[in-house]
Each structure stands twice: as structure tokens, then as C-alpha cells.
Amino acid sequence: LQQVQKVKLLPLTAPNIMGRHMERRLTAVEQDRDWMDRNLQTWESVKSCPRGDYSLVGDHFENLFQGRALAGSTAPVSGSSQSIHERWNLDPGRKIVVAALNSPDEIFAVEKIWGEFRMRFVFPSQLDWLEKLARYFESRTDVTLIVRPHPRSFHRPTGRRTAHLEEILELSKSFPKNVLLNPPWEDVSNHEIMKACSHLLVSYSTAAFEYGLFGIGTLSYTHDYELAPLWDLGEIPVDEEAYFRQLGQILDKDYRLDVDR
């Protein structure tokens, strides 16, 4: 029907109900693969383009900042003069690192669509990763970690939370003082956090690409997710020991916003 009726493919609509998410992803499976193949081919020709050429995607980011994009997964920029440091009373001298979480239904949908394909991770689960991150940052008092659950884990009209978010909220009770939970109902835009963030930590979140366009590096723990070629954004560690060794090197590096971006 999509092909006959010329329906435009929008595979990243991120609906709130997993059934609708699955329905749309399953319907779009073949075109979804073709769409990503074209993206990967195009990336090879533009990844080394001069910085001035980034203006070509200005309209895309203007829509994202205003929260008007259909596939956007963050709140619009508030327009408030209050900075992220002021909002959470953070020391301006500390680095800020963001951990962007995924919604578990995304893994389920991809693996269901692709049959025998199974995603491989450095950590057994996001909760395991998050728990170990919190323990690691407890000794890194020179850095603030902001943990952002996926916005689809919270249904605003009803106030319902997914079981995954409830587990994160329970885990956050043991977070050290320099690890902050930023739940979806706080309405803090990713694009506001970008202004002060030095690095992004993800499993396979496509937030990595938006942060990357603003010069912010990403560390992922997903080995071979074909829909998000995160290896183009940096080396992916082979195991947990390598992950934290690499994270330590990132945090120890001198960082200046005006130079590193």
C-alpha cells in the first residue's frame, strides 16, 4: 500500500504505544533498510565536508529546537535565560557528561523485524550499564553526569510510566551527588544541555548524531547496530574494562568548548 499510494516513509515517529510502534516498523521493514542504506552511502560523500556546508541542514535543526519535528524526541528549547548550570546549581568548572537512554521497545522492534539479527552490547542491559556508570562517577567528583531516560518512557496525558522508567527511578535513589536524573516531565531540551555538555554516553541512541553535529563526541557500548553506525563517531570498546578505560581517557582530557568543538 505504501508503494502504490506513494505514502512517505516516516519510520522514526516514536509513538507512545509499543503496538503502534511495532505496527509502523513492521510495515516499513523493507523500505526502512533501503532508507538506511542510502543514508550510509550519502554519509561517505559528506562526512568530510567543510564546516560552512553545515548551514544546509539549518532548517532541520531550527524545527528540532522549536519542538516541531515529527521525529523529534526532546522538548523544545524553552527560551529561558536560565542556564543548565543555574537550573541544577552546578559548578561551572565541572565537565558535564550526558547519558542518553533508549526505550526497550526499540530493541524488541528491530530484532523482531530482522529475524535472526540480535544486537550485541558491552553491558548486559541498560540498567546494568547505568548502575556501573553511577558507581564509576562516584569517584569522579570533577564531573557531573546527567542521566536522561527516553521520553517515550513517560506518557504525559495520563502520567503513566513504563516499568523500565520505574526501575531507573528506583536505581536513582542510590546515585551519588554528582549523578543527576533528568526525567521527561522536567521538559529540559537536549539542545539546551548541548550548550554545556562535553561528551555523550549512549547505547544506540540517535541523539549521538545530533550531538555530533555540534562537535560533541559520543561513547557507545553497542557493537554492531546497523541502523545507527556509531563506529563513525568513535571507537566502540570491546568489553567493560575497555569501556571504562576509554571513558577515563575522555574525562581526563583537557576540554575547552571553543577549541574541542
Care to count the β-strands? 7
So what's the overall shape? globular
Q: Low-confidence spans: pLDDT under 50, at least 5 residues?
A: 7-32
- Please tell me how large the radius of gyration is: 18 Å
Order of secondary-structure elements = HHHHHEHHEEEHEHEHEHH
What characterizes the major β-sheet? 5 strands, parallel
Biggest sheet, strands in spatial order? 5-2-1-6-7
Question: What features would you describe in this structure?
Answer:
- The protein is of the alpha/beta class and 261 residues long.
- The protein contains 12 helices and 7 strands.
- Strands 5-2-1-6-7 form a 5-stranded parallel β-sheet, with helices on both faces.
- A hairpin with a 4-residue loop joins β3 and β4.
- α2 packs parallel to α6.
- The protein is globular.
- About 10% of the residues have low confidence.
Helix and strand topology:
Elements: H1 2-5, H2 18-27, H3 29-46, H4 58-65, H5 84-88, E1 95-100, H6 104-113, H7 126-138, E2 143-148, E3 154-155, E4 160-161, H8 163-172, E5 179-181, H9 190-193, E6 197-202, H10 207-213, E7 217-220, H11 240-252, H12 257-260
Parallel strand pairs: 1-2, 1-6, 2-5, 6-7
Antiparallel strand pairs: 3-4
In short, what is this structure?
By secondary structure, the chain is α/β, with parallel strands linked by helices. The chain contains twelve helices and seven strands. It has helices at about 1-5, 20-25, 30-45, 60-65, 85-90, 105-115, 125-140, 165-170, 190-195, 205-215, 240-250, 255-260; strands at about 95-100, 145-150, 155, 160, 180, 195-200, 215-220.
